[in-house]
Amino acid sequence: MADDKYTFRETEEEKARQEELLTEVLQACMEEQLSFIPPEGEIARKHRFSGEFEQSMQEMCATRGRRQHRRISSREFTYGFNKIAACILVILMAGGILTGGYLALHRASGVDSTAQVETAAADMAEDTAVMAEESAEDSAADGGTGERETAKVPEQVSFAGQSIDLASEQEVSGETDTVKTLVSCPVLTRDAEEVKVTIGNMGEAAISYNANMELQVQVDGAWYVVPRRQEPVGQQDTTVVLEPGMAQDEELSFADYALDYDAEQYRVLTYVDGVPYSAQFRFESVEQGLEEALEE
Amino acid sequence: MLLYLSVLDTEEEKDKFTEVYEQYRHFCWYVANQLLEDAQMAEDAVQETFLALTRHLDKVGDVESPATRKFLMTIVKSKAIDILRKRKPEQSMEESEYELPDPKQDVLGDYISRENYNALISCVLELDESYRVIFEYKYVHQLSDREIGELLDISPKLVNVRYYRARKKLQEMLKKEVAGRGGR
After folding, report:
1. Which of A40, A57, A235 comes nearest B26 by C-beta?
2. A125 and A183 share a domain?
3. What is the complex's ipTM, to 2 decimals?
4. Same domain, A232 and A209
5. Is A24 domain-assigned?
6. What is the DSSP secondary-structure string of B44-64?
7. Where is the RNA polymerase sigma-70 region domain (chain B) (predicted)?
8. How far is the first Cα of chain A from the last one, in angstroms, to the nearest whole number?
9. If you average pLDDT over residues A107-119, what whole number do you get?
10. CA distance A119 to A204
11. Contact assessment for residue B92 and residue B86, using Cβ atoms and an 8 Å cutoff
12. Which of residues 27-46 of A touch B (CB under 8 A)?
């Protein structure tokens, strides 16, 4: 263990000097290692790269490593966003039909219309209050108000039988003027096998994003990373380039994760040109699922 | 490949990436092969190295400079280590356990002094490559945890965990080395 004179708190200057010295040592060690490596030509004489290697490197050089990148047409772009719009429309229509049916049922049962209006008004007021409350909660979670930032957020929490870590990014935008990230459906059924995320480039320059997206869950207002059961074997270039005006669908399979369907909210996070973006979703409640099953 | 390069030459489109590739592919293979002792796997490591480089080409200045050579050496070593890790999944399991650093136990700074310079050199040279590359990324190439994470395809948090493990290991080695030399 350290002697007494070393137990004093190191000053920043001392730390800087130590880091400088460590850098110097590491540089010297690297030079030492490099000194044992023969010149390029000599190695080339001893080793010939395989045809497979040469071919894949040729492709990599031709595309500067973007050989696995996918480019999509404007048609696909329109189609992707149309699907999302259609999904939202279906939800709105279903909501409308349910509300209409509910009101018709009550009218038929002879409930006083004034009372209905009052009830509806009260429901609306209640809904508005709930929405406002939810909105406030959301803004606390996503907008990153000072209140939550100052509050102690646990670094790890227990989730779906495992310990999960606090996400490094808490305040993440879903869209900017140039980039949009959307999930196919903001509320997923519990038997959904994957979530589809559409990334759109609304700007005038190409963007690149990481298709290896991260799943995060909201626990007590803070975001935590849901780890994969198993990391993908073999490294792949997961960078996708999107030309201006294009969009790309990405799928995140739930089979890779241990999930809690009752969690507050989930989000899929990716980095677009180094900037994090996310799209949120949640699973339907048990009641919602039952209602749908009964309707069917 | 030669045909392709000649096409690029005539069209004056040979970019930095291709320059780096031409200049260092055999060098990278040699470094990888030293660690992996398998020519085929060394080729895989080289491929992964250049794939990673496509996303971090901005960190490469002068193609011919010693800094570029060192940067490539660190990347290819880390890619070779990744391949080794995948061959031994039990090590990966251990990796996934996030061990939070205890700052009280980190007294490496106490051993980093001019008087211990030779001991430092000796220990760094003996340090396992998996630890050394983290130091190289951080100190020699001055990369942040996030940048290192992007290069290694791991989270910044895991980078931090590996960094503290590397510090701990170096500290242990230095402790023994310094004690053997009769001082600190």
Report:
1. A40
2. no
3. 0.85
4. yes
5. no
6. HHHHHHHHHHHHSGGG---TT
7. 21-88
8. 71
9. 45
10. 50
11. yes
12. 27-34, 37-38, 40-41, 43-44
